[in-house]
């Protein structure tokens, strides 16, 4: 099993400056490699420059610029060139599939936030805590950096990535041969129904409240965004005050993201700990949060009819704030590690189907919270009915497979 571990770095002030220089120099290498590919295709008879050609030039580049490129790990620079090569491979794949191509762009220093070391011991070394010492990661050109290791690392460390998020630095370890930490069986199965009023409702009738982290921080975030918008465009990215305002907005967004991630991990952990089988709806979050298409007015050229975009925007914001896709991904990963089973079922009509008689009708869901079957007069909470139907469908699917 492959697993990633993310730990907070605690660099000194000098080490933080060196980490920023490392990102800047790798960003410069990325942009130079991109420029070389563009120039070769445009001016040298549409010549294609590949990863092997650019990797072969690294030795000369390092010798020509020992202060910037020569001080960093050779393998990490190769990983940066592979990153560009993957971007071009994805670009050509989208072109062949007649999708929006998205040509690779130059990276600004503030948007190039990670450097990967492809192998532990080559330009980097992970030193987990032993003999009462603190955990550290050693990076070529920087030295040993303290790591806040909040949980043990299992398996063999393969790649190490240093990442910047705002003013924080993290190290991400990718490990293979990680043993599955199986949990003792409980004999319990459960179905869950995702929502925005309640984050989820279980087939046992339990409601998990929706914390609405974005809504809770909406006032502070709006104030920070209004302050950022007061700077005229001609001075943006040029003044110290504007950079501070942009950092404040990013800081609030990062806090919301961390709160949501922590909530998802804890909720998924509780479900995996207490149940052997967990069933959920197969949700297309991207389609559910898609903006409605404009409705042209046939009587007036250039005019449009109301299409409910404002109301849909509020629902989209609530769905994205709940973060269903992230939660279901975390749930699947934790279940795999614990030896549990997660089953996804078709989400259609789960809240409109009577679990007693099987009658399907939109009229069965009287309100957002109340379900009343028009055939047998069965009454219950609508979210509880949805979770029960999810569990029933998962049971039928597992029986048919078995």
Topology summary:
Elements: E1 3-10, H1 13-43, H2 51-56, H3 58-64, H4 74-96, E2 114-117, E3 124-127, E4 136-139, E5 143-148, E6 156-165, E7 168-176, E8 189-194, E9 198-202, E10 207-209, H5 213-216, H6 218-229, H7 240-274, E11 277-282, H8 285-288, E12 295-296, E13 304-305, H9 309-322, H10 324-338, E14 341-346, E15 370-372, E16 379-381, H11 382-401
Parallel strand pairs: 8-11, 11-14
Antiparallel strand pairs: 1-5, 1-7, 2-6, 3-4, 4-5, 6-7, 8-9, 9-10, 12-13, 15-16
Helix pairs in contact: 1-4, 6-7, 7-10
Structural notes for this entry:
By secondary structure, this protein is an alpha+beta fold. The protein folds into two domains: 3-176, no CATH class; 189-401, no CATH class. 43% of the residues lie in helices and 20% in strands. The protein is built from eleven helices and 16 strands. Strand 8 and strand 9 form a beta hairpin. The longest helix is centred in the middle third of the chain and has 35 residues, at 240-274.
């Amino acid at each position: 099993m492959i697993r990633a571990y993310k730990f907070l770095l605690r660099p000194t002030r000098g080490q933080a400056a060196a980490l920023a220089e490392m990102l800047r120099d790798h960003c410069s290498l990325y942009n130079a490699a991109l420029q070389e590919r563009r120039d070769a295709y445009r001016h040298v008879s549409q010549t294609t420059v590949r990863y092997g050609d650019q990797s072969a030039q690294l030795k000369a580049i390092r010798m020509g610029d020992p202060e910037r490129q020569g001080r960093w790990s050779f393998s990490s620079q190769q990983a940066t060139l592979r990153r560009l090569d993957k971007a071009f491979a994805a670009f050509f794949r989208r072109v062949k599939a007649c999708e929006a191509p998205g040509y690779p762009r130059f990276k600004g220093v503030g948007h190039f936030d990670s450097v990967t070391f492809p192998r532990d011991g080559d330009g980097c070394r992970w030193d987990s805590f032993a003999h009462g010492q603190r955990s550290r990661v050693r990076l070529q050109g920087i030295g040993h950096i303290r790591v806040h290791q909040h949980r043990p690392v299992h398996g063999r460390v393969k790649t190490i990535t240093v990442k910047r998020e705002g003013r924080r630095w993290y190290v991400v370890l990718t490990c293979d041969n990680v043993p599955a930490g199986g949990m003792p069986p409980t004999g319990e199965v459960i179905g869950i129904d995702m929502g925005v009023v309640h984050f989820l409702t279980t087939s046992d009738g339990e409601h998990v409240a929706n914390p609405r982290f974005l809504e809770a921080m909406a006032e502070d975030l709006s104030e920070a965004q209004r302050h950022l918008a007061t700077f005229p465009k001609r001075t943006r990215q040029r003044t110290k005050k504007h950079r501070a305002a942009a950092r404040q907005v990013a800081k609030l967004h990062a806090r919301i993201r961390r709160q949501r991630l922590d909530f998802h991990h804890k909720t998924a952990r509780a479900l995996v700990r207490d149940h052997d089988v967990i069933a959920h709806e197969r949700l297309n979050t991207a389609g559910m949060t898609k903006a409605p298409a404009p409705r042209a007015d046939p009587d007036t050229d250039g005019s449009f009819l109301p299409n409910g975009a404002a109301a849909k925007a509020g629902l989209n914001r609530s769905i994205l704030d709940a973060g269903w896709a992230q939660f279901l991904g975390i749930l699947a990963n934790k279940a795999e590690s614990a030896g549990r089973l997660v089953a996804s079922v078709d989400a259609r009509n789960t809240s409109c189907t009577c679990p007693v008689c099987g009658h399907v009708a939109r009229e069965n869901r009287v309100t957002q919270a109340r379900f009343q079957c028009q055939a047998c007069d069965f009454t219950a909470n609508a979210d509880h009915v949805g979770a029960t139907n999810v569990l029933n469908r998962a049971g039928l699917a597992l029986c048919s497979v078995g």
